[in-house]
């Protein structure tokens, strides 16, 4: 069935024809068409053009004064979790750090405890509810990680929930295996045995069931070091899983050069980065995925986005939605923070949150820009004076409607 959207004030995010994630100057170019129409058919973008010549279609929605943007592509999330950690939030307000909370058995291990005790169906229902919420906030494709199970049964439970979310066919979803998120309590002091279990038992089972698209490691002091990361990433690669790695959230321990050496698809977090990191990423294809909502929530440094842009490094923006460091999947807020705190231009922020996010999930053929044949997943804004007004007027909901799989919601 064809659906025509007419009188669009500006259609933003028209595909630039890039085969790789945008970088440098390309990132500040957001191709647009004023006074436009857009036609969808069978859930895909059929065509678009300007209002001087409009095709005849029986179902028409007038979008006068509204902008249209491709839906956000959130390439880093931990959306599947059992319960919020608002108690830890209050502990942090009272002065405890993220690290101190983790050392007391809170943090990731707290989430693992809760998830282990929950049925797969219950976990699915809670996650499905959150997925619906982020879709309503403009997300049209998403990556979701495991990493709150930390044992064979519970990691598989998480990954099966991710598969069930994907099978809903609401939006494209990619799954990332993150058993190396923390060493579970029962393996305290026996980290290498835990990694043995992960690479010798868990990962082969995950691969056998086709439960993951990517492999991830929390490469950080007190979690997994370079040797651990190498072992897990290599084993993932044996099973055809590309790496997307948590690096440089709190400390620089060499995760970035290692990720580049291992041809990682992305390095994520980078709240801090040194010259070596920037040199390793410079001009390469590894996407630096920045998560400014995490910096905001934990009061840690914001990524040096301008330095990374100057070094010709492709940047993506993602939510990091999780119960501990970023209890928000709001990508419009991520775009605001990118402008306000990372010094990114609105065009750079939207490219990073759409097409480059799609590249960071290997979904750029399907989503992330306005292109014939791509999924008809897009955002219709309220009446706004400019594109810049979206990130500028932070915290306000600028989305009037969303279109997912060609359906107007
Ligand atoms: O990306 N840093 C590691 N993982 C998550 C936080 C996990 C948690 O606190 O539950 C992150 O910030
Ligand atoms: Fe994360």
Describe the structure.
With 409 residues, the chain is an alpha/beta fold. The protein contains 15 helices and 16 strands. The protein has helices spanning 86-93, 98-103, 107-116, 120-136, 152-167, 191-208, 226-238, 255-261, 275-281, 292-298, 305-310, 331-342, 346-353, 355-359, 389-392; strands at residues 2-12, 32-41, 44-50, 60-62, 66-70, 72-74, 139-145, 173-180, 214-217, 242-247, 266-269, 287-290, 315-317, 378-383, 399-404, 407-408. Strands 1, 2, 3, 4, 5, 14, 15 and 16 form an eight-stranded mixed beta sheet that branches. It is globular and about 70 Å long. The structure holds N-(iminomethyl)-L-glutamic acid (NIG) and fe (iii) ion (FE). Fe (iii) ion is lined by residues 76, 78, 246, 320, 322.
Topology:
Layout: E1 2-12, E2 32-41, E3 44-50, E4 60-62, E5 66-70, E6 72-74, H1 86-93, H2 98-103, H3 107-116, H4 120-136, E7 139-145, H5 152-167, E8 173-180, H6 191-208, E9 214-217, H7 226-238, E10 242-247, H8 255-261, E11 266-269, H9 275-281, E12 287-290, H10 292-298, H11 305-310, E13 315-317, H12 331-342, H13 346-353, H14 355-359, E14 378-383, H15 389-392, E15 399-404, E16 407-408
Parallel strand pairs: 1-4, 1-5, 6-7, 7-8, 8-9, 9-10, 10-11, 11-12, 12-13
Antiparallel strand pairs: 1-2, 2-3, 5-14, 14-15, 15-16
This protein binds N-(iminomethyl)-L-glutamic acid and fe (iii) ion.
């Amino acid at each position: 069935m064809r659906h025509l959207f007419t009188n669009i004030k500006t259609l933003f995010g028209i595909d630039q024809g890039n085969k790789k994630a945008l970088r440098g100057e390309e990132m500040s170019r957001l191709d647009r068409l004023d006074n436009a129409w857009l036609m969808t058919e069978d859930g895909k973008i059929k065509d678009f053009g300007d209002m001087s010549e409009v095709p005849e279609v029986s179902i028409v929605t007038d979008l006068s004064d509204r902008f249209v943007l491709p839906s956000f592509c959130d390439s880093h999330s931990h959306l599947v979790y059992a319960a919020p950690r608002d108690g830890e939030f209050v502990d942090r307000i009272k002065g405890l750090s993220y690290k101190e909370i983790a050392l007391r058995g809170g943090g990731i291990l707290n989430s693992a405890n809760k998830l282990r005790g929950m049925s797969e169906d219950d976990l699915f229902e809670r996650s499905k509810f959150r997925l619906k919420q982020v879709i309503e906030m403009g997300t049209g494709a998403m990556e979701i990680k495991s990493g709150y199970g930390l044992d064979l049964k519970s990691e598989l439970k998480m990954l099966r929930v991710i598969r069930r979310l994907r099978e809903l066919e609401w939006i494209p979803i990619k799954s990332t295996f993150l058993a190396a998120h923390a060493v579970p309590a029962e393996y305290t002091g026996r980290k290498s045995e835990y990694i043995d279990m992960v690479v010798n038992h868990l990962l082969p089972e995950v691969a056998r069931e086709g439960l993951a698209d990517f492999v991830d490691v929390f490469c950080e002091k007190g979690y997994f070091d370079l040797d651990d990361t190498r072992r897990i990433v290599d084993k993932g690669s044996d099973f055809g899983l590309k790496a997307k790695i948590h690096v440089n959230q709190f400390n620089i321990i060499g995760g970035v050069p290692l990720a580049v050496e291992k041809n990682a698809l992305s390095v994520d977090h980078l709240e801090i980065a040194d010259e070596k990191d920037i040199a390793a990423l410079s001009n390469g294809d590894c996407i630096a995925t920045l998560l400014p909502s995490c910096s905001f929530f934990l009061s840690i440094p914001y990524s040096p986005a301008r330095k990374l842009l100057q070094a010709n490094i492709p940047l993506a923006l993602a939510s990091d939605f999780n119960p501990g460091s970023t209890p928000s999947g709001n990508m419009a807020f991520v775009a605001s923070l990118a402008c306000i705190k990372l010094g990114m231009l609105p065009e750079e922020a939207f490219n990073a949150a759409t097409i480059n996010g799609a590249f960071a999930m290997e979904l750029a053929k399907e989503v992330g820009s306005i292109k014939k044949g791509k999924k008809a997943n897009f955002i219709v804004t309220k009446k706004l004076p400019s594109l810049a007004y979206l990130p500028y007027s932070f915290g306000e909901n600028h989305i009037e409607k969303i279109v997912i799989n060609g359906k107007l919601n």
